[in-house]
Each structure stands twice: as structure tokens, then as C-alpha cells.
Design a protein that fits this description.
heterodimer; A: 123 residues; mainly alpha; 79% helix; 0% strand; B: 128 residues; binds protoporphyrin IX containing FE
């Protein structure tokens, strides 16, 4: 078995599963959010605010954000192990890929805490 | 990278010499929209922030979305999301063994193409 220190689930089968489970969560979440705008009548601040800051949607948004982190990590990890390798970049391949993955992890964490701040900072 | 497979196997990764039937194009577009959505989610979070912070910021976001450029950006994000979602559902279906034959794969790719174009046009109509 080929293992890789940077894969989220430590092996391809777990990564595969993480990506499927998170895909379902994200799919349902986006349908729930977009569903709000498909309701008849104009989208007012009061309605939107009440909807998104309900405990139900706050928790769901957090679950979606965590799912997004897992999904995007596995997804972009896969992309980086396809295109940012020694095959395309020669000796620099591994270094470039590690920098890419490190930056990715930082951005994902930033998204998470930004999301927490948006939802829990709101009055 | 550790070489784990026989390195003497011929490798052809010259994309310009490889044919791209529709299922392959759907696959690469799914990948491209996935990467694009990573950036798109950042913009969506920004929008979420403005939309919830206060009634004033909600209204200024609404005003901003009257502009053609902002509408185009929103449409692009939604289009990426729609395509990635529709192709992703097909992907999950194939993981469960639905449409895994050559013919099934071709049909699935056509369904994804038509369905996502319809939904993307609908999203455009909704935005404008
Ligand atoms: C909202 C943010 C999303 C982002 C940033 C995102 C990003 C990505 C990326 C980068 C990949 C890797 C593509 C590849 O390896 O070719 C991927 C794969 C995938 N995505 Fe998403 N995605 C998102 C939402 C969704 C949703 C809502 C679904 C729902 C069905 C979904 C379903 C999938 C599936 C099934 C795969 C696996 C494809 C494969 O194994 O080749 N994604 N995603």
C-alpha cells in the first residue's frame, strides 16, 4: 500500500470516504441556503438574518464549514499530488507541493475561524 | 517521491496527444470547478459577513449586487457550484455502481451537461 504523510485519512480509502461524506453534507447545505432565496417574496434583511442565525442554521453552517475543510483538503491534496510533483517540477516538486499544502491548511483554518466569527459575532 | 511502481512503464502525460471524450471533459471540469470553488467559498463567506453584520451592510451588499460585475462574479460562483454539485452527484452514483459501463458513462456525462446548463441558465435568469 502506498501511504503518504500528508493525506488526511492516512490512506486512500479513508480519504475517499471523507470526500464522499463531506460532499453529501455540502450538497444538502447549499440546497438549504439557496432554498431560502427560492422562497417567494423579496429577501429581506430581517428574514435572512433570522434564518441564518437560528441555532439550527448556525450549527449546520459549522458542520458544513468543517466538511468543506475536509473536502477541500482531500480534493486539493489530490490535485497537488497530480500536478505538483517531481514529474512536472523535477527536484523542486516535493518542496513546491509541501508549500502549497501548508498554505492550503492555513487558508482552510482561516476560513473556519472567519466563519465562526461571522456567525457567533453577529448580534 | 518514492517510486512504488515499475518505473520502466511508458508514461504519456502529453495532454495534447490524448483524446478527450465528453466524460473526460466532464471530469476535468469537475476538477477545475472544485479548485475554483475553494476561492469562491472565500467570496461567499465575505458576502455572508456583509449580509449578517447589520442592515446597512446588508443593503450595501444588495446595492453592490446591482452592478454587472458583481452579478457576473456571483453567477460564476453559482455556475461552478451547480456544475460541481451535479457532476458530484453523478460521481456518487457511479461509486454505488450506477452507470459504470461505457455506455452508462457516456449517458451520465450527457445528463450532467444538459442538467447543469439548464440550472446555470436558470441561475443567470434569477440573478438578472
Ligand atoms: C463548496 C465547496 C466545494 C469545494 C471547494 C470542492 C472542491 C473539490 C475538489 C478540489 C475536488 C477534487 C477534484 C479532483 O480530484 O479531481 C472535489 C472532488 C469532489 N467533489 Fe467537491 N467541492 C465542493 C463541493 C462539493 C459538493 C457540494 C459536492 C456534492 C455532490 C461535491 C462532490 C465531490 C465529489 C464526489 C468529489 C470526488 C471526485 C473524485 O473523486 O474524483 N463537492 N471537490
Amino acid at each position: 500500500m502506498v501511504t503518504n504523510a500528508t493525506s488526511l485519512g492516512r490512506n486512500g480509502l479513508y480519504d475517499w470516504l471523507i470526500q464522499r461524506a463531506s460532499a453529501v453534507v455540502l450538497g444538502v447545505y447549499f440546497i438549504c441556503v439557496l432554498g431560502f432565496f427560492l422562497c417567494p417574496g423579496e429577501a429581506t434583511f430581517a428574514d435572512w438574518h433570522a434564518y441564518m442565525t437560528s441555532t439550527y442554521m448556525k450549527v449546520f453552517t459549522m458542520i458544513a464549514l468543517i466538511s468543506f475543510m475536509g473536502h477541500a483538503w482531500v480534493g486539493l491534496w489530490t490535485v497537488s499530488t497530480d500536478y505538483l510533483t517531481s514529474l512536472q517540477l523535477g527536484k523542486a516538486g516535493t518542496t513546491v507541493r509541501m508549500i502549497f499544502q501548508g498554505g492550503l491548511a492555513l487558508i482552510l483554518l482561516a476560513y473556519l475561524f472567519w466563519g465562526v466569527q461571522i456567525l457567533w459575532g453577529v448580534k | 517521491m518514492k517510486t512504488t511502481v515499475n518505473s520502466k512503464r511508458p508514461v504519456n502525460l502529453d495532454l495534447s496527444t490524448i483524446a478527450f471524450p465528453l466524460p473526460a471533459l466532464i471530469s476535468i471540469t469537475h476538477r477545475i470547478t472544485g479548485v475554483a470553488l475553494f476561492v469562491g467559498v472565500g467570496l461567499l463567506l465575505w458576502g455572508l459577513d456583509l449580509s449578517l453584520a447589520s442592515e446597512e451592510s446588508f443593503n450595501s451588499l444588495k446595492e453592490c449586487l446591482d452592478g454587472v460585475f458583481a452579478k457576473l462574479v456571483l453567477w460564476a460562483i453559482l455556475s461552478g457550484l451547480i456544475f460541481h454539485l451535479v457532476a458530484g452527484i453523478k460521481h456518487l452514483g457511479m461509486d454505488m455502481g450506477i452507470g459504470e459501463t461505457l455506455e452508462g458513462g457516456r449517458l451520465g456525462a450527457k445528463i450532467v451537461l444538459v442538467l447543469s446548463i439548464v440550472l446555470i441558465i436558470a441561475a443567470g435568469v434569477w440573478i438578472w
